[in-house]
Amino acid sequence: MKTTKHDKSFSTALATVCSMLALFAASSPVWAQRGPAALPRALTTYGTGSDTTKIQADRAEYELDTGWVTFSGNVAIKYKDVELRSDKIRYNQKTGDAQANGKVALVSDDGSIWRGEALDINLKEVAGKVDSIDIYTRPFRVLAEAGTIATDKTYEISNATLTTCTNEPGFFHWELGTRRARFRPDDDVTAWGGVPRLFGVPFFYLPYYWKDLDRHYGFRFEPGYQSSWGAYLLSSYKLPLIRDKVNQNFLDSRTSLDYRTGRGFAYGERLNWEFREYGTGWFSAYYAEDDDPPVGIEDPDRYRIRFNHDWNATYRDQILMQALYVSDDLFMDDFFEKEFRRMNQPDNYVSYTHLGDLYSAGLLTRFRLNDFYTQVERLPEAWFNLNSIELGETGMYVENRTTASFLNKEYDERYDPMPEAYDAFRLDSGTTISRPMKFFGYLNFNPRAGYRATYYDKTIEKITSASTTEIITTNEYGDVESVYRTVSETTVYEADSDIRSVFELGADLSFKTYGHWRDDSGNIWRHVVEPYVNHTFIPEPNLVPDDLYQFDDVDSLDKYHYIRPGVRNRWQVKHPNSKQVYERLYMNFFADINLDPEEGEDNLERLYFETKYRPNTWLRFDFESWYDAEESEIENAAARVIAWHDVFTSDVEFRYRNDESSLLLGSLTWSVNQAWSMNVFGRYEFENSQVEEIGSWIQHKWDCVALRLYMSVQPGYGVRRDGTDEEDDYKVSIVGWLTDFTPDNIRESEIR
Questions:
Q1: Contacts of 635 by beta carbon, 8 Å cutoff, 6+ apart
Q2: Beta-carbon contacts of residue 418 (< 8 Å; ≥ 6 apart)
Q3: What would the mean pLDDT of 61-65 be, rounded to a whole number?
Q4: Is the per-residue pLDDT at 34 higher than 70?
C-alpha cells in the first residue's frame, strides 16, 4: 500500500497527540495546587533553553492547523518566571498568547499575583487584559473591575480599591478607592482621584497619590500636648529628588511645618542622601519663631543648622563630617531634647582616615562655630600610627604614634571675667620597642621600652608673688587689733619653645590555664584562667604639666610608677552538636598599685572589676566598676541587665559617679497579645532623690494599621541656665502608621 506525504504527516501528528494524552493521563494534578515555584515535572514543553514553556493539565485538545491548544483541568503554564493557572486555558504555542477562564491566577517573577475569572495575556511579553481583578502585588492588594498588563510589567487598573490589609473585602481597616491606578511591582504605585477610608469612613480626597514600595515618602503627623510647648501638631512631607534604584542613589527632601500653641510656628527642611559612590548624610535647617523664649534669650528667632556626612571612599579610606550651629545654648534642650542628651555641646569636625597594611594615618579638623561654648580646636591635627611590626627576624617589635596639632582653646564668651584664650603648635611622637617571649610553653613575658618626645612652640612660666596687708579692726571690747593677711597671686607668662622628653620602661607577664568537663546534658565546658601583671615606670619629665598649656591628656603627662596585677576568667561552653563556642561568663579584675606614692599616701590606689554574664540566649548582664582604695569609696560603676523573650523585652541600667550621679534607668516592653503591646520607661536620680522622667506607650495593631499613644512626665527640679526654676513637663502624643510601611522614626519629634 502506498503511503502519501499527507498520510505521513497525519500519522506523525496522531502519534504525538496520543503520546501526550498518555502522559497527561498518567500524571497527578497535585502540582496545580502547589506554590508558584513548584513544577516537579512537565507533561509537555515548547521551545528550548531559556525560551522553554512548560505545561501541565488533565486534558488537552489540539488544533493542528492554527497552533492553538486547549488545556483543561488544573492547568498550569510556566514560561521563564511567569506562571499562569486556571481551570481552562487556550494557548498558542507559536505566539505565546493565552486565554484563561475560571479561577485564573497569574504569578509574576516580581511576586505579584493576579486573580480573576478571565484573562487574555501574552506570556512571552507578559502583556494582556483581565476582568474582575483581585491582585496582590507586594504589599498591596487591589480589587477592580478591569485592567491591563503592559510589556514592561506596568499594571493599569480602572476603578480600583487599594489596601495593604489581608482581611475580607468590606472589612478593610483602611483602603483607598481610586478612579485609576498604575502599579510597577518592586517600584511604586500611582493613583488618581483617590478617597482614603479609615475603618470605612472617608476622611480626605487625593487628586493624586504616589507611593514608593521600598522607601517611606509622603505625609507624617504627630499631634500631642507638652507642658513647655502647649498643644502641638508636628507635620512633614517627604519626597524624592533623586531616586535611582538601579545604582542605589537617592536624595530625599523632608519639609516640616510645626505649630505649638505655647511657642508658635516652626519650619524645617531636611535633605537626606545615599550615594553608592559618595556616602550617606543629611542637612537640616530648622527655624522657630518662639513666642515664649527662655529668660535671657532676647531674640525670638531661634534656629538650628546641622550637617552630617559619612563616606567610605574605598575599603581603606573614610571621611566623616559634622557641623552644628545653633542660635543659643538652650535651643537644643527646648526643641531637640533627645539629641541634646546625646550631645549637649556641638561637636564640629572633619575627619579623614586611611588604613594601610602596616599603618594608619589621618587628618582631623575640630572647630567651634558658636562663641558661647568652651572648646579646644584642632586646626588641624595630622596623625600617623605605625602598627606593631617585627624588626627583621630579631623577634623585637616596634610601634609608633605621631601627631602634629595646631591647638587653640577658646572660652565661653559669657565668662566674667573672660579667661584669656591660648594656642600652641604641638608635635608629639612616641615609639615603643618590645620583645615578646614565651617560657616553659605557657608563660608569656613582654618587656618594653619607649621614648616620647613632644615639641611645643610655646610653653608657660608661672611667677607667684605674695603681698601682705594689715587690717585694723576693733574687737567687742573696743580694743584696736591688727590682722595681717597674705595674698598670693600667680601670673602666667608665655615662654619659649621647648621639647618634653618622656621615657618609659615596662613589662607584661601573663599565662593561661584551663580545665574541661562535661555536664549531664553532654555540653562541654571550659574554664580559662589568665593571671597577668603589667608594670610601667615613667620618671619625671623635664617639663611638668605646670610648664605647659593644657589642651588634653597629652599635656598632663607626669611621672608614673605603677604595677597592675590582675586575672581574667572565662567560662565557655560548646553544645555536642555544634562547633560554635559560647562564652557564658567573663570576669576581669585588677588593681593599680603606686610604687612611688606621695608622702602620706597608700600604695594601693584603685581596684577595677568587670563581668559579662550570658546564662542563655535571652538574658545578658554587664557590670563594671572603679573603686578608690585611698578614699575607700566607689569612683564610678555601671550595671546593665537586658532580657528578651517571646512576649517581653527589658533593659535596666544603673550608672554611678561619685558625688555626681546615681542614675537608674530602664525600659520594659510587653506584647500582651498579637494586637496589644505596651512599654514603660523611666529614669530615677538617687543623688537628689528625683524622678527625672517616667512614661509609657500603649500600642494597638490591627491587621494593617498600628496606633501608639505616648505619655510621660519630667518633674521639674533644679535651675536652668537662665536662672529660672524647672517646671514639671507633661507630654502626651499619638502616632499611627501602616504596618507595611513602618516609618524610619515612629515619632515625628525625633527627626527634623
A1: 606, 626, 627, 628, 657, 658
A2: 411
A3: 79
A4: no
Burial 272-285 (b: 16+ CB within 10 A, else e): bbbbeeebebbebb
Q: For the chain, how long is the longest CA-to-CA vector?
A: 161
Query: CB within 8 A of 613, min separation 6: which ones?
Result: 584, 585, 586, 620, 621, 622
Do residues 281 and 322 touch, judged by C-beta distance below 8 A?
no
Backbone torsions φ then ψ of 11, nearest 5 degrees: -65, -40
Contact 136, 116 (CB under 8 A): no
Contacts from 685-694 at CB under 8 Å and sequence distance 24+? 685/661, 686/662, 687/660, 687/661, 687/662, 688/717, 688/718, 690/715, 690/717, 691/715, 692/663
The string of pLDDT tens digits covering residues 288-314 is: 999 998 888 889 999 999 999 999 999
Residue 285 cell numbers, joined: 535647617
Contact 668, 650 (CB under 8 A): yes
What span, in angstroms and rounded, lies between the C-alpha atoms of 678 and 146?
44
What sign results for the dihedral spanned by CA atoms 382, 387, 388, 393? negative
Cell numbers standing for residue 522? 553532654
What tens digit of pLDDT does each residue of 547-563 get? 999 999 999 999 999 99
**337, containing H or E segment:** helix 337-342
| The three grid cell numbers given for residue 437, joined into one nine-digit string | 617571649
Residue 131's pLDDT band, with cuts at 50, 70 and 90, is low
Q: Can you name the residues that pair with 589 across neighbouring β-strands? A: 567, 609
Q: DSSP of 605-642, one letter per residue?
A: EEEEEEEEEEEETTEEEEEEEEEETTTTEEEEEEEEEE
Give every CB contact of residue 442 below 8 A, 6+ residues apart in sequence. 511, 512, 513
DSSP states along 667-712: EEEEE-SSSEEEEEEEEEETTTTEEEEEEEEEEEE-SSEEEEEEEE
Do you find a cis peptide bond into 139, omega within 30 degrees of 0?
Answer: yes
Give dist(CA 80, CA 50) in Å, integer: 7
* DSSP H or E segment with residue 17: helix 5-26
Closest CA to 446 of 532, 531, 567, 565: 532
The answer to whether 178 and 192 are in contact (CB under 8 A) is yes
**Single pTM value for the model:** 0.79
CA 519 to chain centre: 39
Residue 574 grid coordinates: 560548646
* More confident of the two residues 317 and 719: 317
CB atoms inside a 10 Å sphere around CB 450: 19
